[in-house]
Amino acid sequence: MSLRGTVVALARRSGAVLRKEGPVGLLRRAGAFAGFLVSRVLDFRTVYLYEHSVIARDRSLFQPRLPSWELRVMHSNAEADAVAAEGFEDFCESFVFANRSLESGAVAFCAYVGSELAHVGWLAVDETGKRHVDKLPFRVAFDAHQACTGGTYTVPRYRGNGLMACVYHERFEYLRARGYTSVRNSVRVSNVASQKVHARFAPLIYGIGRYRRVLWWHSWREEPLPGGARRGMPEGGRVVEV
Fold first, then answer.
1. 90 phi and psi, to 5 degrees?
2. Domain for residue 239, yes or no?
3. Could you tell me which of 83, 65, 66, 86 has the C-alpha nearest to residue 74?
4. pLDDT digits 0-9 by tens, 202-242
5. Residue 71 has pLDDT above 90, yes or no
6. What is the DSSP string of 187-234?
């Protein structure tokens, strides 16, 4: 995409966010985007490394607390355009890199309330897609029926309704139907809310990853979890509803 095209796309998407989430939402998104740009040259993060088993689970245990909602799964920009043509909010208007992520082979899971986008979660089934879902270089055995999840976002007005857990369950079901046996992902040590959601699926927390980036230099180190791998919630996490 040319510089002019990028500027036009950013302006269009800023307008969409302003209409949907108001000035506060636009500022929040602008701050997140600025943080993303900074992370391209300066990034220090510590994460827990998770592995989920892809097994049958009772869907009723993961339903959101909403009177109605609808899930759409998109594998390409053409499918995203088709969903928008049906009258649903175009999630590519609000997420700057959604088009590129879809082009890479990443799969988007979008939850709508009416025609309004409420939640987005991403899934990758190969290394190319993973670079758009989670750039951290933890190993995912794609050739052994393992996948990667990440890029989860709930629109602020719909937080607290259990959408993250619901859409995670749907991602796992999508993979189970295609013969996948496990999923890996990372969660920042500070993100207790996400840790709480993941704990509902009894994941294995198998290690800690430390990523450091300064300009073109970067490093990645994985360490065992203190006290050994465990299932559920990291010790000391407070309960936060998502």
1. -80, 105
2. no
3. 83
4. 999 999 999 998 888 889 999 998 888 888 888 754 433 33
5. yes
6. EETT-HHHHHHHHTT--EEEEEEEEEEETTEEEEEEEPPTTS-EESS-
CB neighbours of 62 closer than 8 A, spacing ≥ 6? 162, 165, 166, 168, 169, 200
Q: Are residues 83 and 187 in the same domain?
A: yes
Output the CA–CA distances (angstroms, integers) from residue 213 to 97, 136, 187, 209, 218, in the order listed.
21, 11, 18, 13, 4
Q: HSE (CB half, 13 Å, CA atoms) of 97? A: 15
Domain-located, residue 241: no
**Looking at the 3D structure of the chain, how many domains does it have?**
2
- The Cα–Cα gap between 30 and 24 comes to 10
Residue 134 lies in a domain: yes
Residues 110 and 2 grouped into a single domain: no
Domain of 24 in residue numbering reads as 1-40
Residue 238 lies in a domain: no
- How many CA atoms lie less than 13 Å away from 32 in the CB half-sphere? 14
Q: Are 25 and 117 in contact (CB under 8 A)?
A: no
Q: What is the dihedral sign for C-alpha 27, 30, 34, 40?
A: positive
pTM of this prediction? 0.81
Cβ contact 161:66 at 8 Å = yes
